[in-house]
Amino acid sequence: MVRAIVYVCYAVILGVTFCDNLKWNSSTQEIINKASKRLYLIRVLKRAGVPPPHLVTIYSALVRSVLEYACPVWSNNLQQHLNQKIEMVQKRPMRIIYPYTSYDMALSLSSISRLEERRLNICSRTFTNACDPTSRLFSNVPSRRNEVHGHNLRHADHVSLPLCRTERFKNSFFLLSSDAWLFSKA
Fold first, then answer.
1. For the whole prediction, is pTM greater than 0.90?
2. Does 103 map to a domain?
3. Are residues 34 and 113 part of one domain?
């Protein structure tokens, strides 16, 4: 029995929305909507007199976890205006928790970093874990140069990156992380 392949505009896989144009606008909007719904709890708890350290813990558990879910998949290809939209979601609870301080001061008081920095750290840790030969993701990591060429090279620990025809492929998780990993080793 032959089945026809059905064309869809988007697909949700493990809670991440993939669009047919490979843009992250709708996925980002869903993340923002889901996180924004959870901010009401922080506002209610603030009115009830819960101290700021507890509110920060609740924010980290309920809201920031949504904002960072599966970020190695989508964060490298995120456009700047979508980065700013996601960061705005974090600004709102910081204004609720610390109403008379600036955003940067609220971040330092709560010992929280900007979301873009956190996503970079998460991606870096994920790639470092993927470089372990026992990892399930190891087969996706580009090969080291000495394994590809078989010659004794000056920079044998560097990885051989494939040729990229599009910017989207160049900004994919493993290629961008490999590139960042190379510069961190230098």
1. no
2. yes
3. yes
Question: Domain ends where: 90, 122, 154?
Answer: 122
> Over 70: is that where the pLDDT of 161 sits?
no
Taking the CB of residue 162, how many other CB atoms lie within 10 A of it? 12
Q: At what angle do helices 80-97 and 25-47 cross, to 10 degrees?
A: 0
Of the two residues 151 and 108, the one the predictor is more confident about is 108
d(CA 93, CA 45): 11
DSSP characters for 116-153? HHHHHHHHHHHHHHHTSTTSTTGGGSPPBHHHHH-S--
Mean pLDDT to the nearest integer, 35-40? 92
